[in-house]
Fold:
Amino acid sequence: MDTWADGLYRFVLKNLSDSEKSRDIIQDCFEKMWVHRENIDAEKVKAYLFTAAHHTMIDYIRKAKRETSLDWKKVAEPVSHHGYSDLQEVLHAAVERLPEIQRSVVMLRDYEGYSYREISEITGITEVQVKVYIYRARIYLKSYIGQIQSVV
Amino acid sequence: MDEFQLFLKENHDLASELEMGELPALFPNEDIRFEAKEELKKSVIDHDTEFQERAVAYYEGDLSLNEQKDFEASLSENAAVATAAQQFGKLKLEADRTIVYENKAQLKKKIVLFPLWTKVASVAAMLLLAYLLFQPNDRTLPQPEPLAGNFRSKTPRNIVAPKAVIKVEEPQKVKPTPIVTPKQNQPKVPAKQKANTDEPKPEKKANPVPRIPVPETAPSLLRPRGVSFGQPDDVELAGMTHKEPVLVPKEMELADLLSVQLAAMRNSDDRELLSMDHLGLSGLQLIARMSGKRLTARKGNDGTVHSVSYNSRLLAFSIPVNR
Structure:
């Protein structure tokens, strides 16, 4: 619990940009894990938590999109891109602009170092799709850096 | 073919015309060469999309060993392309380690273990409770045999020693020896009672019988069995019936009344502790005790219970009995 909670929280928080909702999702995930603890392999606890977090997060995003006429991404994105102090800030600002599935796979890849296969199991999409999404996300991030490089 | 050559030898003029019909042949000039052949070769780095994909694959570790070498070789030839490729290597997101989940303690489930001793303790508590409920109550009747002797010494709180003439209806149930006490100076109770019945009872008028409060704990040995409150509170002490008007408390706690009933049932000869009547009364007594003395039984002038009332701050009701 102490091992995975922080990483899971970072993953959800960076996807949602909502600390309150992120905490709720973390609690839901750990509760699900507790309920199904008999059926979870000890070596796959982390993957189970991230899978649960991903699906809960996607459900929340879709629900939020349905409930509001505003563009959810525009609400979540930062107000200004000026004044970045380092490349990571620029990157995270760019990541927020990615489609949620691309954002998730890139974070799982970079934050947790998951392989394509593991990301495929977590997100429920094929390995080829994971690879394509990561490639597209990298190229977008590269172009975003190229655009904003003069600002940094 | 031989005939055709023989024909040409015989006709020389035709042979010269045949030689004029042959097609002229062109031969390439081997000295002419294209000098910019290298410019025609295209590398992956020359195609934007392909270069980006290759660069991403390189930093994702998706290239084979040979592909990696080729890519590195192509980058080494072009510094600008190498710089562009290096930017793909900087696209890795780094987790912000300052972001931590603060309330980890809330995520931990407290496992409550129920060891065996708790089950044993609960069973023991139930047995103890059952024993306390069904054991003979201190407030119950004295046993029939020492009843007469205890009549004065251990009378309930509002019983005055009976000096009234007592008629014996069922002497066969009275055990003579224990009933007769020296203090009462009535060695033979049946005889005296019989004498009293024969006389016109002048003594009764001369010495009016005091109003004898009915003992609340009077047994009802001869009453029919059943859960009922409608029995008159005639005094039936070991077969002795007192017909005088009695002082019956109008209200008494239901638990006390039930104690009397249960005690009478336990002390009876044909007692059946597990009979439905006994269990029903016991359950009712438990409810009455749990109610915190809020359940009271109201009696009429004839001593029968007319209603059972419940009084609390929030709720009060009365249930008629035996109507």
Summary: Chain B has a mean pLDDT of 68.
